[in-house]
Amino acid sequence: MLKRTPFALAAAFLASCLNSQAGAEERPNVLFIVCDDLNTQVGPSGYENTHTPVMDKLARTGMTFTRAYCQYPVCGPSRASFLHSLYPESTGVISNRADIDDTRPGTISMPQLFRNAGYWTAATGKIFHIPREEAQEQRWDEHIRFENDEMPMVTPIREAFEKEHGSVDLPKNKKLWKETYFNIATQTRDQNIGYGPSGLTDEQHKDGKNARKVVSWLEEQSYGDQPFFIAMGIQKPHVPYLAPDKYFEHYPKEGLEYVLPPSDFWDQAPRTARDSRFEAFGFELGKENSDLRRDYMQSYHACITFLDAQLGLVLDALEETGQADNTIVVFTSDHGYQLGEHFLWGKVSLFDICDRVPFIVRAPGMTTAGSSSEGLVELIDIYPTLADLCSIEIPDHVQGKSIVPMLEDPSVAGKDVSYTVVARGKNLGKAVRTQRWRYSKWIDGEELYDLENDFHEHKNLANSPEYAPVMKAMRYRLEIMEAFAASKAAPES
């Protein structure tokens, strides 16, 4: 199953390895960066309204995939999927509560594969969704998760609370403190739904700590004589949308741009194609609240620019330590995110903005600087691609496909379809995309969008007689993907 690169490219890559700082010998290092809830509103994805100079620079030195898709638009299922290169039906993880170590024990994860192959593996932040998955010793030589420092606005209120009630950490105080904390300001609402300037510096945020930890590993050569596989989990722009104050200056609210969906959109789409998360954000379905929308957009975009700056610290450290020419860099997100598109907020849908992710790969000696591809790729392709690039045998369970041929030649076509699912109760909504079409099947209806002529997916063509041949073809494609996605499911115990 192992795809080998052409001799000339392999020789060039080996030469870059030998000329780099000692440590990795003949095998390249890997820096895998995964953001949390980052959609394609970033420069390399063609979005011009956010300030992402570091991502833009990475794209200029690597290869950008503009049509990369997650397999499930929720953190836990998506991460279980791409960290094991299995579709959700085969991982058995279709909620944030499920653990692949329970649903499919013994399946080799991506970091475990590299550790078994002699790599020093380390991670900061959230890579696996569940902390105890992260703690499995067969996966990491070192792993750490950080927390934000306390926001200045919180400190006097906490101190007053503790003077009256005792420590906020006392079991008897936890509920009352939680209620008090959530009502201090918009910034303290946590996941229901916090946003705004934090009053903290970059290094006081968990993502600032994550980046600086990776920098220290590089500077101190913590990997010793082994090649390294370092994963950096970036928490932003996941809620709460908190970032240091200076990043908000890039986004005056009156300058924020967005496209309104048709007010009657949900008259033509299946009910189960939406979820009700918009209510937690304070919106009503079909009604626009421009002021509130701009509050959230400003904070979300400030988070993007903040994480971009942290990414810059790590990429600079690669250069300064002499490892840039011997390190494969992958930058992506676990799924996309909705900021009012179709009146929806958050994730858990099959719309393009929710399922498409930023995806940049820089493989020294292989990728052409500044190249891009519109070919379809999936997050489950990362695992076999990195194994392929590092000459590690790809396990039999893998359902993804190495995209090394696309890295070698950007004109090479991607997949025929991408496949994404999401749960609605005990049922799954399922979508397939081709270069032109997105088709989704729900328990109460179907969707068909012409992505070439209706980029925002505002007109559902599923019930239009003239598109009956397209519907037939897309249903067939979905049937094929349904069967393949479940083909490596773990047997029932």
TrEMBL record:
Question: What positions does the domain Sulfatase N-terminal occupy?
Answer: 28-390
Instruction: Print the keywords alphabetically.
Output: Calcium, Hydrolase, Metal-binding, Signal
Q: Which GO terms describe its cellular component?
A: cytoplasm
Alphabetical list of Pfam families matching this protein = Sulfatase (PF00884)
**Which CDD domains does this chain map to?**
iduronate-2-sulfatase
Q: Which InterPro entries does UniProt cross-reference here? A: Alkaline_phosphatase_core_sf, IDS, Sulfatase_N
Q: Which cofactor does it need?
A: Ca(2+)
| GO molecular function terms noted in the UniProt entry | iduronate-2-sulfatase activity; metal ion binding
- Show which residues constitute the signal peptide: 1-24
Tell me the superkingdom of the source: Bacteria
- What family classification does the UniProt entry report for this protein? Belongs to the sulfatase family.
Put simply, this protein is called Sulfatase
**What is the originating organism of this protein?**
Pelagicoccus mobilis
Taxonomic lineage of the native organism? Bacteria, Pseudomonadati, Verrucomicrobiota, Opitutia, Puniceicoccales
